[in-house]
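EI: anyone free to look at a 249-residue chain?
SC: sure, send it
EI:
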Amino acid sequence: MSASGGYGPAAICAGIVSHVNLLLGEGARPVLEAEITAGQGRFRGIRHSSAWDGEAGVAGMYAMRPKSLLLDPTFRNGFSCLAPLDLSFDAWLFHPQIPELTDLARAFPDTRIVLDHCGGPIGRGRFANRREETFSEWKASIQEIATCRNVVVKLGGLAMCLLGYDFHERPMPPSSEEAAAAWRPYIETCIEAFGPGRCMFESNFPPDKGQCSYQVIFNAFKRIAAQYSEAEKTALFSRDGDGFLPAEA
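SC: here you go
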């Protein structure tokens, strides 16, 4: 309906990121090909969540996911099907797993990888009350994976309870000023490491609405982005390129 032009210029669902079980190995290719056909030109890539932690207080709903999925040989056989089909991979994981994604990105330099939610920094469970130490560990991993030219990052997902802030327990939700103050170190670190051209703000709704509204999230982003140039803001909010760097760049 959107593509018909009869409902205005907005391109709704112009790009689709779906899911294929890459543990099918080489058997993932026909499934990917079927999704390309079904997408009618809109299918862009997949997300196969690898979020895992051995502590239930951290892992939550992901406690039963396989450990070290990104290093699994069968998974990597499936992953190898993406680049030949010009498909990207969205990576949702927790920050201790970023080195595994870095290893994957270096093993498949021609596959476009999107690091979701600022790399999943954790502030609960054993990471609670260790924010400064955890931030240093997370930052080092972000700086390292940013050296992989085939990786870009989504700036957001920080209103999830994973980060360890108590906004959802307060009588009133946070203002955009409070949210910006909490998230600024993480977002600025990503922008510094990747550059504005390899970063983009995201809403991550509905998971983020447990702590604040959509409007608060994007007003917080605007506050954080105020220091950047107009060209950099355009890249961060509405880039029309894909942000990936060629291998020889």
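EI: The radius of gyration is 18 Å.
SC: 👍
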